[in-house]
Amino acid sequence: xxxxxxxxxxxxxxxxxxxxxxxxxxxxxxxxxxxxxxxxxxxxxxxxxxxxxxxxxxxxxxxxxxxxxxxxxxxxxxxxxxxxxxxxxxxxxxxxxxxxxxxxxxxx
Length: 108
Description:
By secondary structure, the chain is mainly alpha-helical. It folds into two domains: 2-67, no CATH class; 73-103, no CATH class. It is 61% helix and 7% strand. It has helices at residues 2-11, 15-25, 31-40, 45-54, 58-70, 92-103; strands at 78-81, 84-87. Strands 1-2 form a two-stranded antiparallel ribbon. Helix 1 runs antiparallel to helix 2 and helix 1 (2-11) crosses helix 4. The mean pLDDT is 94.
């Protein structure tokens, strides 16, 4: 439902604002809370509610889930550096090492 909420907010030009609220207010992501967040953001709450209740973005969300499965993406955060999967929070030095290795590979 949180994914539906973020996309319903996107429809009204407030994707990132909803994104930030969802992250800061997690795990309070029930229907009533999502509708309250829409009100806080000044969204058309009636339109927002109809969108999340109607599953207007279910096809897009299902597509994203299928894509995640095909690339073995089951954890957040997950990063890809030139196709190399990096799971979990890592310090800058960890990413720097991977990037430097990738840059120095022959043919890259």
